[in-house]
Amino acid sequence: MIAARGIWLKAGGRSLLADVSLEMRPGEVLVLAGPNGAGKSTLLKILAGEVTPGAGQVTLEGRPLPAWHPRDLARRRAVLGQHVGVAFPMLARDVVALGRLPWHGHPAETARDAEAIAAAQAEASVTHLAPRAHATLSGGERQRVHLARALAQLDGAGMPAALMLDEPTASLDAGHRAALLRLLRRLAGRGLAVLVVLHDLQEAAFVADRVALLEQGRLLACGPPDVALDPALLERVYGLPFRHLPGLGPIPLLAEGALTPG
Amino acid sequence: MHIARVVPAMRVGIDRTPWVLAGGLVVLLAAMAAGVLLGPARISPGGLGAVLADALGLADLPDAFRRDAAVLGVIRAPRVLLAAIIGAGLGAAGAAMQGLFRNPLADPGLIGVSAGAALAAVAAIVFGATLFGVAAGALGLWMLPLAAFLGGLAATLLMARLGNVGGVTGVATLLLAGVAVNALAGALTGLLIFTADDRQVRDITFWTLGSLAGARWEQVPVVAALVGLPTLGLIALARPLDALLLGEAEAFHLGHRVETVKRVAVTLAAIAVAAGVAFTGLIGFVGLVVPHLLRLGFGSGHRLVLPGSALLGGALLVLSDLAARSLAAPAELPVGVVTALIGAPFFLWLLRRAAGAQA
Fold it and tell me: Which Gene3D superfamilies match (chain A) (predicted)?
């Protein structure tokens, strides 16, 4: 539904992205993986329409992103950034309610605001945090509140929508990580196109329908986890030995000796 | 999805914005009534009744109440109206700039408008009689406000140009450009004061302290248009400013053209503040204190903070002006002194409170 074709982006004489083509499909979790500085976040920003590529184009349902009114775009795709702060004191509930802003002027949807907010809070398990001040929440709790905001944004009008998340598990504990990954699977099951930047390759293998592996701005591989997370490929990218755990399928683990001081 | 249907009212709460704004309107109207009825010259209830009856065309004004009619209709009414509109403009512009810059200390001074207006006003006072002799004669009492208005807009324009790098207006760059423009305008103002004579220095001092003593009816429509309309425009920016609470990228993700919002907000705030200070001189703290008070009491949503700041900003300036002309009667305190006397300690208290909350 969101497709990038031949994306190039240069900055300071260096190619941040070089000839990347990628498609987000409804009902699918697409993981962006790769080392630090590979261009994952930049690619996410380009797919979100936030950054304009130097060459190539991104389309939503065949129409280039710049041709969409930002409000119509906002009704079809939501973004959960890495570090989202709030400038002034706000209740968690009011932060989630900001997700409904794009639906202003859509009478049928604004009538459902309360319902959409409550549903999003329940999905992100932040209902109990709703009456608390955003500033008093822990990093992981904030992350989930902003996830709820993104979900509230996409709750409406019954059209296929896209959710983009940049390292959403970064500040979550093991329990909430698992809950988030399961939630992403559920959302894809409902027809959402999900794009998620992950560093943890085991998480990637668990949640992904497809993995896009980036290195220095180039798309090395894009396909099901057993293809894109091939141990030989990962060893080339990360410079560390990987192996698949027998009996668990294509879940990459660091091989024995990978962390031996040398 | 099911949870939502069971307990939506409990989870979401009741939107109290309309009630708070209705309360703000009551406060403003009460302040305006006090501003018209109270003051150094006492108006008897009989006098008030006679003036009202005359104004409504119910009865002719008895000669005994001519003085009351003049005090109410000619002196106080336009003064209170100007204070209400200009205070509303300062309050809304302050709230909008804080939202735009995502900074609780932002006020319209940051976009250079006050410093630019002051520079132009001082230039008009110092050079008015000589350099612009002909124009000054034609413009009369309008020369100083016109100069201050244009000076404020010019400074903001300069700041916006300086803050714009490659078509993108970075908030940090804009803040630094504002600091630079403020410093430059301040230095030039200092130079002009250095060359001014004693009477001009006195005029300059009183202008920079602010006063509504010069209020006249013919100024009311001008201020209503140049301050009132931009204030309404700022209030209409509540949703994009709400989105900006999360940051610029997030505001775009939520469907807003951030560059357009920035340009429109800065332009409207500059017009409202420049036109306001043009008629009153510099008035500080209204745009800083009122939005903070509202955020503290009722949260940071701009659908409440923006119109609320307009209503309470108007009320604060009307009451400050009432205090300014009553406290030292028959002399008048500069109204900027009164707003700062109320505002500065209050602001210090806010800072202490915020520091305490973070500790």
Answer: P-loop containing nucleotide triphosphate hydrolases
Instruction: Taking residues A86-108, report their average pLDDT.
Output: 91
Roughly what angle, to the nearest 10 degrees, separates helices B77-101 and B258-280?
150
Nearest beta carbon to residue B4 from set A91, A101, A118: A118
Q: What local confidence, expressed as pLDDT, does residue B270 receive?
A: 92
Contacts of A190 (CB under 8 A, 6+ apart): none
Answer whether A87 sits within 8 Å of B256, measured CB to CB: no
Q: Do the chains contact at B1 and A119, CB–CB below 8 Å?
A: yes
User: Length of chain A in residues, anyone?
Assistant: 262
Q: Which amino acid is at A111?
A: A
* Residues A253, A240: Cα–Cα separation, whole Å: 10
Give the pairing of strands B164-165 and A218-223: unpaired
Please give the interface size between A and B, counted as residue pairs whose CB atoms are below 8 Å apart. Answer: 113
User: Would you place residue B352 in the very low, low, confident or very high pLDDT band (cuts 50, 70, 90)?
Assistant: confident
Report the alpha-carbon distance of residue B159 to residue B175 in Å, rounded.
Answer: 9
* A91/B9 Cβ within 8 A: no
Interface residues from chain B to A (CB-CB < 8 Å): 1, 3-5, 7-9, 11-13, 98-99, 102-104, 239, 242-247, 249-250, 252-257, 295, 299-301
Instruction: Identify the closest residue of chain A to B302 by CA–CA distance.
Output: A88
| Number of Cβ within a 10 Å radius of residue B90 | 34
> Inter-chain contact B255–A101, Cβ cutoff 8 Å?
yes
Residue B8 has pLDDT above 60, yes or no: no
Cα B285 from Cα B90, distance rounded (Å): 9
CB < 8 Å from B in window 177-216 of A:
none
Contacts A85 to B, Cβ<8 Å = 246-247
Mutate to test the interface with B, among A69, A79, A88 (most CBs of B within 10 A): A88
Name residues whose C-beta falls within 8 Å of residue B259's C-beta, 6 or more positions apart in sequence: B167, B168, B169
The pLDDT of residue B58 is 76
- Inter-chain CB proximity B247 and A84 less than 8 Å: yes
**Quick check: A129 contacting B, CB < 8 Å?**
no
Shortest Cα distance, chain B CAs vs residue A95, angstroms: 9
- What pLDDT does A31 receive? 97
Q: For residue range B108-161, what is the model confidence (pLDDT) as tens digits?
A: 778 888 889 989 988 888 887 665 555 555 666 788 888 889 999 999 888 888
Minimum distance, in Å, between the CA of residue B347 and any CA atom of chain A: 16
Rounded CA-CA distance A145/B147 in Å is: 50
Structure tokens at A179: 């809950």
Q: Considering only CA atoms, which of A83, A50, A234, A224 is closest in space to residue A166?
A: A83
Q: What is the CATH architecture of B3-358?
A: Orthogonal Bundle (1.10)
The answer to pTM > 0.95 is no
Dihedral sign for Cα B230, B233, B238, B244, please. negative
- Token pair 């992103």: residue: A65
Domain boundaries, chain B: 3-358
Instruction: Tell me, yes or no, if A156 comes closer than 8 A to chain B by beta carbon.
Output: no
